[in-house]
Amino acid sequence: MAGFELWELPARWIAYAVLVEAIALVAALASFTRGEITDVALVRFAVLLALGMVQAELSRRIERDRRRMSGSTHINMTSIWLIPAVLMLPPQLVAVLCVALYTHMWLRIWQHLHNVTLYRTVFGASAAIVACLAASTVAGTPLAERLPEWSWSVTLACLLGGLTFELVDALLLAVSINLRNRGNAPLTELFGSWDDNALELTTLCLGGLTALTLVYQPLFTVLLFCPIVVLHRSVLVKELEAAATIDVKTGLLNAITWHHLASQELARSKQDQRATVGVLMVDLDHFKRVNDTYGHLAGDAVLKSVATAVKNQVRADDAVGRFGGEEFVVLLPGVDEAGALVVAERIRKTVGALYVMAPQEGVPIAGLSCSIGVAVHRSSGTTMERLLLAADTAVYRAKRTGRNRVVTTVDKRDAA
Description:
Nucleotide_cyclase, transmembrane helix, single chain, transmembrane
């Protein structure tokens, strides 16, 4: 989706983006009638702007690499500087700081990346302006004085300001992502994963610390650069690790990682003679028709929806991976043949009930089905290679006998 031209996006998303940008513009202009711009505010504004630009320059390569790998949900470090602005500056300077920081990020980092477009950057900046001004209205600039006396009311105002910023910004971006995906975006894409939200919370905390440091010990502000840059770099390292283990199109484990985890689980089960392990091979029926009829982007949307459906029908500890093409594999530790058949049938029915919107045309894709092969440790084989071969053989039998069914292989002659 990130590479779409503006005219290829849904009309509802374009209308929504224009609405948010108009609200941001009106709110920013209206903010110039609120709050007095003092010398202290101007100095703090200049310091925050300088800090934000220096931090962006120091992390420029890190941010580029993260942007190249990111999907719809991308968390940058700008909130570290916007939160202090909300708590310390009059609203008009907050709006100007938003525009300045996003303009700098675009010119210095984002404009040469193929998956970052100008219209998305403008929308992101607009959402940030709306969130900042909403937070400023709620918080009431509790740290505006040169040395404000700390109290519980100041503490509450700071907390409410940060919470308002986070909720408004998250909601605006979630609606944008949902409209851009024509209502077909999973919850983790709308609001981010647990790791995404942990990072967002960390940036908000750092923003609060930055505000307190600037107000009460401004010379110590330079000490914040080290943890901020290290945090940014550690996030990149984690994303690189995820990229090496996760299938990009579906978000599932890739084949190599799944096979490694499955082999480890099978080795553990061999130490207990009573332990069982189930393996499911899930193969979409007539997937080529989807690509030929609706295009490869629609095919990718179907793969992603099916991956989410499969993952939602198994336990959190079960390993789900993309085996290749339109094939998925599921590892079910501690599950016997009867249990594996129940899970497989549940997956088959869920896939059959899917309703996927083609990304570009907005045409509904329904009537999907899958053939599932079931293999169980010992009855179907005692090595992972034998289990996968047994499950694949069962899928072939399901295809040959009509598709859209679950078939198990328990022939003792196939066991190693």
